[in-house]
Amino acid sequence: MTQNRLTALGVLAALLVLLADQASKWWILNGLDLPALGQVVVLPVLNLTMVWNRGVTFGLLNGFGTWGSVILAVVALAVVAALAVWLRRAESRLVALAIGAIAGGAIGNVIDRVRYGAVVDFIHAHVETRWGDMSWYVFNVADAAIVCGVAALVIESQWPRRAHRTA
Protein backbone atom coordinates (compact mmCIF):
# COMPACT_ATOMS: atom_id res chain seq x y z
CA MET A 1 0.00 0.00 0.00
CA THR A 2 1.38 3.42 -0.90
CA GLN A 3 2.24 6.02 1.70
CA ASN A 4 -0.60 8.28 0.56
CA ARG A 5 -3.11 5.46 0.96
CA LEU A 6 -1.80 4.60 4.42
CA THR A 7 -2.09 8.25 5.42
CA ALA A 8 -5.64 8.40 4.04
CA LEU A 9 -6.51 5.20 5.94
CA GLY A 10 -5.24 6.73 9.19
CA VAL A 11 -7.14 9.97 8.59
CA LEU A 12 -10.32 7.97 7.85
CA ALA A 13 -9.85 5.99 11.09
CA ALA A 14 -9.41 9.25 13.03
CA LEU A 15 -12.57 10.72 11.51
CA LEU A 16 -14.62 7.58 12.23
CA VAL A 17 -13.44 7.45 15.85
CA LEU A 18 -14.13 11.17 16.26
CA LEU A 19 -17.63 10.80 14.77
CA ALA A 20 -18.48 7.76 16.92
CA ASP A 21 -17.13 9.47 20.04
CA GLN A 22 -18.95 12.76 19.56
CA ALA A 23 -22.20 11.06 18.47
CA SER A 24 -22.16 8.81 21.56
CA LYS A 25 -21.50 11.78 23.84
CA TRP A 26 -24.25 13.82 22.19
CA TRP A 27 -26.70 10.96 22.77
CA ILE A 28 -25.58 10.49 26.38
CA LEU A 29 -26.00 14.21 27.14
CA ASN A 30 -29.02 15.11 24.99
CA GLY A 31 -30.86 11.94 23.99
CA LEU A 32 -30.62 9.91 27.19
CA ASP A 33 -29.94 12.91 29.48
CA LEU A 34 -27.57 10.85 31.62
CA PRO A 35 -26.53 13.89 33.70
CA ALA A 36 -30.09 13.96 35.11
CA LEU A 37 -30.32 10.17 35.49
CA GLY A 38 -26.85 9.64 36.93
CA GLN A 39 -26.70 5.96 36.06
CA VAL A 40 -28.50 3.43 33.85
CA VAL A 41 -27.98 -0.32 34.22
CA VAL A 42 -27.60 -1.80 30.73
CA LEU A 43 -26.32 -5.30 31.53
CA PRO A 44 -25.27 -7.06 34.74
CA VAL A 45 -21.68 -6.12 33.81
CA LEU A 46 -22.25 -2.73 32.15
CA ASN A 47 -23.73 0.55 33.34
CA LEU A 48 -23.93 3.97 31.79
CA THR A 49 -22.63 6.22 34.55
CA MET A 50 -22.21 9.98 34.14
CA VAL A 51 -18.76 11.27 35.07
CA TRP A 52 -17.24 14.65 34.20
CA ASN A 53 -13.51 13.88 34.04
CA ARG A 54 -11.48 17.03 34.62
CA GLY A 55 -8.18 15.13 34.72
CA VAL A 56 -6.54 12.72 32.30
CA THR A 57 -6.85 8.96 32.14
CA PHE A 58 -8.52 7.58 35.28
CA GLY A 59 -8.98 11.12 36.63
CA LEU A 60 -5.25 11.69 37.20
CA LEU A 61 -4.04 15.30 37.42
CA ASN A 62 -7.52 16.35 38.43
CA GLY A 63 -6.40 19.18 40.70
CA PHE A 64 -5.29 21.80 38.17
CA GLY A 65 -8.57 23.72 38.34
CA THR A 66 -9.76 25.79 35.38
CA TRP A 67 -6.34 25.85 33.74
CA GLY A 68 -6.19 22.06 33.83
CA SER A 69 -8.52 21.66 30.85
CA VAL A 70 -6.59 24.22 28.82
CA ILE A 71 -3.22 22.66 29.62
CA LEU A 72 -4.45 19.14 28.89
CA ALA A 73 -6.08 20.25 25.62
CA VAL A 74 -2.84 21.91 24.45
CA VAL A 75 -0.79 18.84 25.35
CA ALA A 76 -3.27 16.57 23.55
CA LEU A 77 -3.13 18.74 20.42
CA ALA A 78 0.69 18.59 20.49
CA VAL A 79 0.44 14.79 20.67
CA VAL A 80 -1.96 14.80 17.71
CA ALA A 81 0.52 16.90 15.72
CA ALA A 82 3.28 14.39 16.49
CA LEU A 83 0.94 11.54 15.50
CA ALA A 84 0.27 13.28 12.17
CA VAL A 85 4.01 13.29 11.46
CA TRP A 86 4.23 9.61 12.41
CA LEU A 87 1.19 8.79 10.24
CA ARG A 88 2.93 10.26 7.18
CA ARG A 89 5.69 7.68 7.80
CA ALA A 90 3.48 4.70 8.71
CA GLU A 91 4.65 1.47 7.12
CA SER A 92 1.58 -0.73 7.58
CA ARG A 93 -2.20 -0.64 7.69
CA LEU A 94 -2.18 -1.61 11.35
CA VAL A 95 0.08 1.30 12.30
CA ALA A 96 -1.96 3.75 10.22
CA LEU A 97 -5.24 2.56 11.78
CA ALA A 98 -3.78 2.63 15.30
CA ILE A 99 -2.39 6.14 14.89
CA GLY A 100 -5.72 7.28 13.45
CA ALA A 101 -7.63 5.75 16.38
CA ILE A 102 -5.36 7.46 18.92
CA ALA A 103 -5.56 10.83 17.14
CA GLY A 104 -9.34 10.66 16.68
CA GLY A 105 -9.81 9.80 20.35
CA ALA A 106 -7.49 12.56 21.49
CA ILE A 107 -9.31 15.13 19.35
CA GLY A 108 -12.67 13.92 20.69
CA ASN A 109 -11.55 14.48 24.26
CA VAL A 110 -10.05 17.89 23.38
CA ILE A 111 -13.43 18.92 21.96
CA ASP A 112 -15.02 17.99 25.30
CA ARG A 113 -12.44 19.97 27.27
CA VAL A 114 -13.05 23.05 25.12
CA ARG A 115 -16.87 22.73 25.18
CA TYR A 116 -17.47 21.58 28.74
CA GLY A 117 -14.22 22.07 30.65
CA ALA A 118 -14.17 18.31 31.24
CA VAL A 119 -14.36 15.04 29.32
CA VAL A 120 -17.70 13.21 29.14
CA ASP A 121 -17.16 9.67 30.47
CA PHE A 122 -20.03 7.20 30.71
CA ILE A 123 -19.08 3.56 30.01
CA HIS A 124 -18.75 1.66 33.29
CA ALA A 125 -17.82 -2.02 33.15
CA HIS A 126 -17.90 -4.04 36.36
CA VAL A 127 -18.16 -7.63 37.58
CA GLU A 128 -19.82 -8.85 40.76
CA THR A 129 -17.71 -11.51 42.46
CA ARG A 130 -18.01 -13.28 45.77
CA TRP A 131 -15.27 -10.90 46.99
CA GLY A 132 -17.24 -7.82 46.00
CA ASP A 133 -17.74 -5.61 42.98
CA MET A 134 -14.73 -5.39 40.66
CA SER A 135 -15.18 -2.10 38.90
CA TRP A 136 -13.17 -0.44 36.12
CA TYR A 137 -12.83 3.25 35.62
CA VAL A 138 -15.58 5.04 33.73
CA PHE A 139 -14.48 5.83 30.17
CA ASN A 140 -15.80 6.81 26.73
CA VAL A 141 -15.44 5.79 23.06
CA ALA A 142 -12.41 8.07 22.60
CA ASP A 143 -10.64 6.49 25.57
CA ALA A 144 -11.35 3.00 24.23
CA ALA A 145 -9.96 3.96 20.80
CA ILE A 146 -6.82 5.41 22.37
CA VAL A 147 -6.20 2.30 24.50
CA CYS A 148 -6.85 -0.05 21.55
CA GLY A 149 -4.60 2.04 19.29
CA VAL A 150 -1.75 2.02 21.78
CA ALA A 151 -2.18 -1.74 22.34
CA ALA A 152 -2.07 -2.32 18.57
CA LEU A 153 1.14 -0.30 18.29
CA VAL A 154 2.74 -2.24 21.14
CA ILE A 155 1.74 -5.58 19.60
CA GLU A 156 2.86 -4.48 16.13
CA SER A 157 6.24 -3.42 17.52
CA GLN A 158 6.83 -7.03 18.57
CA TRP A 159 6.44 -8.43 15.05
CA PRO A 160 9.63 -8.81 13.02
CA ARG A 161 9.78 -6.41 10.07
CA ARG A 162 9.76 -7.92 6.62
CA ALA A 163 12.65 -6.91 4.40
CA HIS A 164 11.59 -4.86 1.38
CA ARG A 165 12.33 -6.50 -1.94
CA THR A 166 14.39 -4.43 -4.29
CA ALA A 167 14.07 -6.64 -7.36
Give a written overview of the molecule:
The chain is an alpha+beta fold. It has one domain. It is 58% helix and 17% strand. A four-stranded antiparallel beta sheet has the order 1-2-3-4. Strand 3 and strand 4 (132-135) form a beta hairpin. Helix 1 packs parallel to helix 4 and helix 3 runs antiparallel to helix 4. The protein is globular and about 50 Å long. 31% of the residues are buried. The mean pLDDT is 88.
Features:
single chain; alpha+beta; globular; 4 strands; 167 residues; 4-stranded antiparallel sheet; 5 helices
SSE sequence, one letter per element: HHEEHHEEH
Distance between the termini: 17 Å
- What would the average pLDDT be, to the nearest integer? 88
Portion of residues within helices? 55-70%
Strand order of the largest sheet: 1-2-3-4
List the helices and strands and how they pair.
Blueprint: H1 3-31, H2 34-37, E1 39-43, E2 46-53, H3 66-88, H4 93-116, E3 119-129, E4 132-135, H5 141-157
Antiparallel strand pairs: 1-2, 2-3, 3-4
Helix pairs in contact: 1-4, 3-4, 4-5
Describe, in short, the structure shown.
The protein is of the alpha+beta class and 167 residues long.
